[in-house]
Amino acid sequence: MSLFDWFADRRKGQFVGKVIQEADDSDGLWGKCPECGQVVYRKDLIANASVCSNCGYHNRIDSEERINLITDPGSFQSFDTDISPTDPLGFKDRRAYADRLRESQANTGMKDGVVTGICKVESIPMALAVMDFRFMGGSMGSVVGEKITRLIEKATSKKMPLLIVCASGGARMQEGMLSLMQMAKISGALDRHRDAELLYMPLLTHPTTGGVTASFAMLGDLILAEPKALIGFAGRRVIEQTLREKLPDNFQTAEYLQEHGFVDTIVPRTKLRNTLGTLLRLHGNKPK
């Protein structure tokens, strides 16, 4: 079987998809970049921060990989790991919300869709929250809101800068108003963090949408984004139907938002740690 035939055969299964990382580790030795079609060796891809060396396409990564890329080795200390979501509304659509939670917890090994903790970046202490899109599309429920709020309050009390890595489809509809309340709760905590004259930076990754974009993702002192990340509130189709006009092809990309003043800078993943270290030092934060 030729290499071309092998990939053609694999394309019928789960292996070749939009996100190379979601292939089975035991089987996924090779992949194909969804942007340029370049055949890539998985270990080389991971060594390059899951960025295609040919075209720079940023594949989606999970929270553990993200933390390893951002923080100094061995410096991350997580907390609030035992907070678990409930089903206060007894919500059920095609499936019960409780079943969806159990499935996501089993697949990801996480209690909910965000990891929070304290770390160091180039020896500078920093509070860090990383949303994980694998857990129900990174949706923001009560646990996500509570963990991020607690992190912000800890950063404020310890006078630490804060970074939140956003990856979300928005508020979690299965929790109704309780999920929407998290927008105000997190925003209030960020306001107190700002009153203390402390630095807050959101990093917008692909995708950052819905209630997350409408709240803490756009409240940063410096708003960072990954290249070509989808960033927006409502979907393209909804906006086009409302406005009754065609939107630009690059609408809601990080590059479009930077051009129109909604994003301060676009940072390639391979340069993220060095960039964060520079920004932290420029804002008066010192190594400890």
Topology:
Elements: H1 3-10, E1 30-32, E2 39-41, H2 42-47, H3 63-70, E3 77-78, H4 97-108, E4 114-121, E5 124-131, H5 142-157, E6 162-168, H6 177-195, E7 200-208, H7 210-213, E8 224-225, H8 236-243, H9 254-259, E9 265-266, H10 272-282
Parallel strand pairs: 5-6, 6-7, 7-8, 8-9
Antiparallel strand pairs: 1-2, 3-4, 4-5
Helix pairs in contact: 5-6
What is the count of distinct domains? 2
**Helix vs. strand class:** alpha/beta
CATH A-level architecture of the largest domain: Alpha-Beta Complex
CATH class bucket of the largest domain: Alpha Beta
Number of helices: 10
What is the terminal-to-terminal distance? 57 Å
Low-pLDDT windows of residues: 1-26
The pLDDT mean sits at 90
What is the C-alpha radius of gyration, as a whole number of Å? 19 Å
Shape: globular
Helices and strands, in order, run as: HEEHHEHEEHEHEHEHHEH
Physical arrangement of strands within the biggest beta sheet: 3-4-5-6-7-8-9
Helix content: 25-40%
CATH superfamily of the largest domain, called what? 2-enoyl-CoA Hydratase, Chain A, domain 1
The CATH topology of the largest domain is: 2-enoyl-CoA Hydratase, Chain A, domain 1
Largest sheet: 7 strands, mixed
| Strand count | 9
Strand content: 15-25%
